[in-house]
Write a structure and sequence with these properties.
Elements: H1 3-16, H2 29-38, H3 44-57, H4 61-67, H5 69-76, H6 82-100, H7 108-112, H8 119-128, H9 139-148, H10 156-166, H11 172-185
Length: 211
Protein backbone atom coordinates (compact mmCIF):
# COMPACT_ATOMS: atom_id res chain seq x y z
CA UNK A 1 0.00 0.00 0.00
CA UNK A 2 1.40 3.42 -0.99
CA UNK A 3 2.14 5.96 1.71
CA UNK A 4 -0.65 8.29 0.55
CA UNK A 5 -3.10 5.37 0.66
CA UNK A 6 -2.02 4.45 4.22
CA UNK A 7 -2.56 8.06 5.29
CA UNK A 8 -6.03 8.06 3.71
CA UNK A 9 -6.81 4.62 5.19
CA UNK A 10 -6.28 5.88 8.72
CA UNK A 11 -7.82 9.28 8.03
CA UNK A 12 -11.11 7.54 7.19
CA UNK A 13 -10.97 5.19 10.18
CA UNK A 14 -10.19 8.18 12.39
CA UNK A 15 -13.07 10.19 10.95
CA UNK A 16 -15.56 7.37 11.54
CA UNK A 17 -14.41 6.78 15.14
CA UNK A 18 -12.33 9.69 16.51
CA UNK A 19 -11.87 8.28 20.03
CA UNK A 20 -11.86 4.46 19.88
CA UNK A 21 -11.65 2.59 23.18
CA UNK A 22 -11.05 -0.95 24.35
CA UNK A 23 -14.13 -3.15 24.44
CA UNK A 24 -12.81 -4.81 27.60
CA UNK A 25 -14.34 -3.42 30.79
CA UNK A 26 -11.86 -2.24 33.42
CA UNK A 27 -11.61 0.24 36.29
CA UNK A 28 -7.88 1.02 36.49
CA UNK A 29 -4.54 -0.17 35.04
CA UNK A 30 -4.59 -3.24 37.28
CA UNK A 31 -8.04 -4.47 36.23
CA UNK A 32 -7.11 -3.72 32.60
CA UNK A 33 -4.03 -5.92 32.96
CA UNK A 34 -6.11 -8.74 34.47
CA UNK A 35 -8.78 -8.41 31.76
CA UNK A 36 -6.20 -8.57 28.97
CA UNK A 37 -4.52 -11.64 30.49
CA UNK A 38 -7.94 -13.30 30.71
CA UNK A 39 -8.80 -12.36 27.12
CA UNK A 40 -6.17 -14.63 25.52
CA UNK A 41 -8.09 -17.10 23.33
CA UNK A 42 -11.37 -15.70 24.64
CA UNK A 43 -13.82 -13.02 23.49
CA UNK A 44 -14.06 -9.59 25.09
CA UNK A 45 -17.77 -10.25 25.64
CA UNK A 46 -17.00 -13.45 27.54
CA UNK A 47 -14.32 -11.78 29.64
CA UNK A 48 -16.59 -8.82 30.48
CA UNK A 49 -19.30 -11.23 31.63
CA UNK A 50 -16.86 -13.08 33.88
CA UNK A 51 -15.25 -9.95 35.35
CA UNK A 52 -18.43 -7.95 36.00
CA UNK A 53 -18.87 -9.27 39.54
CA UNK A 54 -15.15 -9.93 40.06
CA UNK A 55 -14.13 -6.29 39.51
CA UNK A 56 -16.88 -5.09 41.83
CA UNK A 57 -15.13 -6.99 44.64
CA UNK A 58 -11.52 -6.96 43.47
CA UNK A 59 -9.68 -4.06 41.84
CA UNK A 60 -6.22 -4.20 43.44
CA UNK A 61 -3.46 -6.83 43.61
CA UNK A 62 -3.94 -7.01 47.41
CA UNK A 63 -7.62 -7.85 47.03
CA UNK A 64 -6.86 -10.44 44.33
CA UNK A 65 -4.27 -12.23 46.47
CA UNK A 66 -6.74 -12.18 49.38
CA UNK A 67 -9.43 -13.67 47.11
CA UNK A 68 -7.11 -16.56 46.25
CA UNK A 69 -6.77 -18.86 43.26
CA UNK A 70 -9.72 -21.17 43.99
CA UNK A 71 -12.26 -18.38 44.45
CA UNK A 72 -10.90 -16.59 41.39
CA UNK A 73 -11.51 -19.75 39.36
CA UNK A 74 -15.17 -19.65 40.36
CA UNK A 75 -15.46 -16.19 38.81
CA UNK A 76 -13.66 -17.00 35.56
CA UNK A 77 -14.58 -20.65 34.95
CA UNK A 78 -16.63 -19.69 31.86
CA UNK A 79 -13.42 -18.48 30.15
CA UNK A 80 -11.12 -20.86 28.28
CA UNK A 81 -7.90 -21.95 30.05
CA UNK A 82 -9.29 -20.58 33.32
CA UNK A 83 -7.08 -22.79 35.52
CA UNK A 84 -3.79 -21.51 34.13
CA UNK A 85 -5.14 -17.97 33.86
CA UNK A 86 -6.17 -17.97 37.54
CA UNK A 87 -2.67 -19.12 38.49
CA UNK A 88 -1.12 -16.36 36.36
CA UNK A 89 -3.40 -13.63 37.74
CA UNK A 90 -2.54 -14.54 41.33
CA UNK A 91 1.14 -14.81 40.39
CA UNK A 92 1.27 -11.43 38.66
CA UNK A 93 -0.63 -9.84 41.56
CA UNK A 94 1.93 -11.18 44.03
CA UNK A 95 4.77 -9.93 41.82
CA UNK A 96 3.22 -6.46 41.53
CA UNK A 97 3.03 -6.27 45.32
CA UNK A 98 6.54 -7.59 45.81
CA UNK A 99 8.38 -5.72 43.05
CA UNK A 100 6.27 -2.66 42.16
CA UNK A 101 4.51 -1.51 45.32
CA UNK A 102 1.21 -2.83 43.95
CA UNK A 103 1.32 -0.57 40.87
CA UNK A 104 1.25 -1.71 37.25
CA UNK A 105 4.60 -0.64 35.72
CA UNK A 106 4.52 1.54 32.61
CA UNK A 107 7.49 -0.38 31.29
CA UNK A 108 7.49 -3.15 28.69
CA UNK A 109 10.32 -5.17 30.15
CA UNK A 110 8.79 -5.14 33.64
CA UNK A 111 5.35 -6.03 32.27
CA UNK A 112 6.69 -8.97 30.25
CA UNK A 113 8.25 -10.45 33.38
CA UNK A 114 4.80 -10.87 34.93
CA UNK A 115 3.20 -14.34 34.69
CA UNK A 116 0.88 -14.66 31.69
CA UNK A 117 2.03 -11.38 30.13
CA UNK A 118 3.56 -11.51 26.67
CA UNK A 119 4.36 -8.81 24.17
CA UNK A 120 0.76 -8.42 22.97
CA UNK A 121 -0.62 -7.99 26.51
CA UNK A 122 2.15 -5.54 27.41
CA UNK A 123 1.37 -3.52 24.27
CA UNK A 124 -2.33 -3.29 25.15
CA UNK A 125 -1.59 -2.13 28.70
CA UNK A 126 1.01 0.42 27.55
CA UNK A 127 -1.39 1.77 24.93
CA UNK A 128 -4.67 1.82 26.84
CA UNK A 129 -3.51 2.55 30.39
CA UNK A 130 -0.48 4.74 29.68
CA UNK A 131 -1.18 6.28 26.27
CA UNK A 132 1.86 4.85 24.50
CA UNK A 133 1.54 4.51 20.71
CA UNK A 134 2.05 0.74 20.67
CA UNK A 135 0.26 -1.67 18.34
CA UNK A 136 -0.70 -5.03 19.84
CA UNK A 137 -1.16 -7.52 17.01
CA UNK A 138 -4.00 -9.94 17.73
CA UNK A 139 -5.71 -12.25 15.19
CA UNK A 140 -7.84 -9.37 13.86
CA UNK A 141 -4.91 -7.02 13.24
CA UNK A 142 -2.80 -9.85 11.82
CA UNK A 143 -5.58 -10.62 9.32
CA UNK A 144 -6.30 -6.98 8.40
CA UNK A 145 -2.60 -6.19 7.98
CA UNK A 146 -2.06 -9.12 5.63
CA UNK A 147 -5.39 -9.05 3.78
CA UNK A 148 -5.38 -5.34 2.95
CA UNK A 149 -1.68 -5.21 2.16
CA UNK A 150 -1.21 -2.57 4.86
CA UNK A 151 1.39 -4.66 6.70
CA UNK A 152 2.17 -8.14 5.45
CA UNK A 153 4.05 -10.52 7.68
CA UNK A 154 4.20 -14.20 8.59
CA UNK A 155 4.21 -13.58 12.35
CA UNK A 156 2.50 -11.09 14.68
CA UNK A 157 5.90 -9.56 15.47
CA UNK A 158 6.60 -9.04 11.76
CA UNK A 159 3.21 -7.38 11.24
CA UNK A 160 3.76 -5.19 14.32
CA UNK A 161 7.18 -4.06 13.06
CA UNK A 162 5.72 -3.24 9.64
CA UNK A 163 2.77 -1.32 11.15
CA UNK A 164 5.06 0.74 13.37
CA UNK A 165 6.97 1.65 10.23
CA UNK A 166 4.04 2.53 7.96
CA UNK A 167 1.36 3.99 10.26
CA UNK A 168 1.70 7.80 10.30
CA UNK A 169 2.86 9.01 13.72
CA UNK A 170 -0.27 11.11 14.29
CA UNK A 171 -2.48 8.02 13.94
CA UNK A 172 -0.33 5.56 15.90
CA UNK A 173 -1.97 6.04 19.32
CA UNK A 174 -5.36 4.76 18.14
CA UNK A 175 -4.24 2.52 15.24
CA UNK A 176 -4.44 -0.58 17.44
CA UNK A 177 -8.14 -0.03 18.22
CA UNK A 178 -9.16 1.05 14.73
CA UNK A 179 -7.64 -2.08 13.21
CA UNK A 180 -9.10 -4.44 15.83
CA UNK A 181 -12.59 -2.97 15.47
CA UNK A 182 -12.32 -3.02 11.68
CA UNK A 183 -11.29 -6.68 11.77
CA UNK A 184 -13.93 -7.61 14.31
CA UNK A 185 -16.92 -5.98 12.61
CA UNK A 186 -16.08 -5.40 8.93
CA UNK A 187 -13.00 -7.26 7.70
CA UNK A 188 -14.16 -10.50 9.33
CA UNK A 189 -12.27 -13.77 9.15
CA UNK A 190 -14.64 -15.93 7.11
CA UNK A 191 -16.29 -13.30 4.95
CA UNK A 192 -15.20 -9.67 4.91
CA UNK A 193 -18.07 -7.22 4.48
CA UNK A 194 -16.45 -5.32 1.60
CA UNK A 195 -19.61 -3.50 0.44
CA UNK A 196 -19.81 -1.52 3.70
CA UNK A 197 -16.04 -1.10 4.13
CA UNK A 198 -14.96 2.56 4.14
CA UNK A 199 -11.43 1.69 2.97
CA UNK A 200 -12.36 -0.92 0.37
CA UNK A 201 -10.96 1.10 -2.56
CA UNK A 202 -7.56 1.36 -0.82
CA UNK A 203 -7.38 -2.33 0.06
CA UNK A 204 -5.28 -4.81 -1.91
CA UNK A 205 -7.52 -7.83 -1.23
CA UNK A 206 -8.33 -9.41 -4.60
CA UNK A 207 -11.38 -11.51 -3.70
CA UNK A 208 -13.61 -8.71 -2.44
CA UNK A 209 -17.16 -9.70 -1.52
CA UNK A 210 -20.04 -8.07 -3.37
CA UNK A 211 -22.85 -8.70 -0.89
Amino acid sequence: MKRADVEEFFRRLSESDPEPTSELNYKNPYTLLVAVVLSAQATDVGVNKATRDLFEQVDTPEAMVALGEERLKEHIKTIGLFNSKAKNVIGLSEMLLRDHGGDVPADREALEKLPGVGRKTANVVLNVAFGEPTIAVDTHIFRVGNRTGLAKGKTPDAVEAKLLKVVPAHYRLHAHHWLILHGRYVCKARKPNCPVCIVSDLCGFKDKTTH
